[in-house]
């Protein structure tokens, strides 16, 4: 019997896959537990329409991420940290501080978990920080670190 999976099943496949299983397994396990539906022509057509809609939404999300990435790359934020004599830096700049500065100065809502930094910034000057907006889109934000 052909079944359309409604959720991921480790031994069979991923959600949306059409798999061939024994009749008993389908009737006694998959269909009653709502882990699959029978692959009738109506259900197959519904799956096809859902996949087309999901592809369209994914394309729109990718385009939106690219547009937002262009805005991010065209802008910069300034973060100040305390310094002592001879330009010695006290503390550092973290991803949370960069996200807060972007919200205050630019109005951009950036998730601190999406900001990809190697450690923290402990030097004055300009730094390029990668921000992962989408699995296929990464933008670079310029961060000016200045003394207070």
From TrEMBL:
<feature type="domain" description="Large ribosomal subunit protein bL9 C-terminal">
    <location>
        <begin position="64"/>
        <end position="146"/>
    </location>
</feature>
<dbReference type="Pfam" id="PF01281">
    <property type="entry name" value="Ribosomal_L9_N"/>
</dbReference>
<dbReference type="InterPro" id="IPR020070">
    <property type="entry name" value="Ribosomal_bL9_N"/>
</dbReference>
<dbReference type="GO" id="GO:0005840">
    <property type="term" value="C:ribosome"/>
</dbReference>
<dbReference type="InterPro" id="IPR020069">
    <property type="entry name" value="Ribosomal_bL9_C"/>
</dbReference>
<comment type="similarity">
    <text>Belongs to the bacterial ribosomal protein bL9 family.</text>
</comment>
<dbReference type="InterPro" id="IPR000244">
    <property type="entry name" value="Ribosomal_bL9"/>
</dbReference>
<dbReference type="InterPro" id="IPR036935">
    <property type="entry name" value="Ribosomal_bL9_N_sf"/>
</dbReference>
<keyword id="KW-0694">RNA-binding</keyword>
<feature type="domain" description="Ribosomal protein L9">
    <location>
        <begin position="1"/>
        <end position="46"/>
    </location>
</feature>
<comment type="function">
    <text>Binds to the 23S rRNA.</text>
</comment>
<keyword id="KW-0689">Ribosomal protein</keyword>
<dbReference type="GO" id="GO:0006412">
    <property type="term" value="P:translation"/>
</dbReference>
<dbReference type="GO" id="GO:1990904">
    <property type="term" value="C:ribonucleoprotein complex"/>
</dbReference>
<dbReference type="InterPro" id="IPR020594">
    <property type="entry name" value="Ribosomal_bL9_bac/chp"/>
</dbReference>
<keyword id="KW-0687">Ribonucleoprotein</keyword>
<dbReference type="GO" id="GO:0019843">
    <property type="term" value="F:rRNA binding"/>
</dbReference>
<dbReference type="InterPro" id="IPR009027">
    <property type="entry name" value="Ribosomal_bL9/RNase_H1_N"/>
</dbReference>
<protein>
    <recommendedName>
        <fullName>Large ribosomal subunit protein bL9</fullName>
    </recommendedName>
</protein>
<dbReference type="GO" id="GO:0003735">
    <property type="term" value="F:structural constituent of ribosome"/>
</dbReference>
<dbReference type="InterPro" id="IPR036791">
    <property type="entry name" value="Ribosomal_bL9_C_sf"/>
</dbReference>
<keyword id="KW-0699">rRNA-binding</keyword>
<dbReference type="Pfam" id="PF03948">
    <property type="entry name" value="Ribosomal_L9_C"/>
</dbReference>
